[in-house]
Amino acid sequence: MSKYRIALIPGDGIGIPVTDAAMAVVEKVLPGQVETETFPWSCDYYLETGKMMPEDGIETLRSFDAVFLGAVGWPEKVPDSISLHGLLLPIRKSFVQFANIRPHRLLDGVEGPLRKTDFDILCIRENTEGEYSGAGGRVHQRTSDEVAVETSIFTRTGVERILRFGFEQARQRSGCLASVTKSNAQKYSMVFWDEVTQEISAEYPDVEVSQYHIDALAARMVMAPESLDVIVASNLFGDILTDLGAAIQGGLGFAASANINPERNAPSMFEPVHGSAPDIAHLGIANPLAAIWSAAMMLEHLGEAEAAGRIRTAMNKTTAQGFGTVAGKHKTDVIGNAVLAALA
Length: 344
Ligand code: IPM
Ligand code: MN
Known about the structure:
This protein is α/β, with parallel strands linked by helices.
């Protein structure tokens, strides 16, 4: 009997081939130990059924040990506001995957746009509330009196738990934590976040916490990324900073993520940071390394640290040999096969 049951949601566009590549790597490192079930939930599924996933989709996923998602969205077919709010975002919220972890560092042989290689950043993004709470509405639509309101919601529970998570990660790494807000302009939610940061820091005297404003931190990520280690930020700020993180690590083809439920009372979800990339989806050139790295994070979460480490070593060998380092140069399966060969 296999040890782990994984729900696969390849989704749309390049989500499908990168999920295949990632699962081939998982099978290689843990042969016969991972059973997968694939769910066709996607924009095409929406066009057929009128829903991004069935009514009981969340309940179906709940029994799995983890969810692996490729990418969701195809704005020409279905507006993003429908596809993301019908699948990805409800999974993050329903399973209380409040910590979205995204590592930003260069794989061997990847140059990146900065002339530096010595950075290793871990972004911790709040993943269930804040600017993504979905509280708002529109009135007088399509008139000159139109009003749109969207309110960020920051709860003490939500802010305390993500900050504690950040402090814990910092404690396991360099002992330095950067907490990111915009409290000079946003005087309620962000001042609250800063205050809670100070409160929680009393529980972690061994962690040195620095508080940054998002604009200054964005500049620092480019000018002095080596001065940063663990970063903790709200949902939207973390979203933006992690595309910047992806850029400095060579592009979205390398950026991995884990949506973690630290309580482990529901499955966590693993997905590359990139989207479905409709513009290149038919070319077969999507870099599967972001998905493969995300799969390594999944195995780590499941307690298979050794297997995860083997995948990371194989990824570094692959890029050191030049596979996947230049966007579009190698086909998805060539890069995937190079990782498999490095594991052999
Ligand atoms: C990400 C993505 C999503 C997000 C989108 C697709 C809703 O950009 O995972 O970073 O904003 O969380
Ligand atoms: Mn994003």
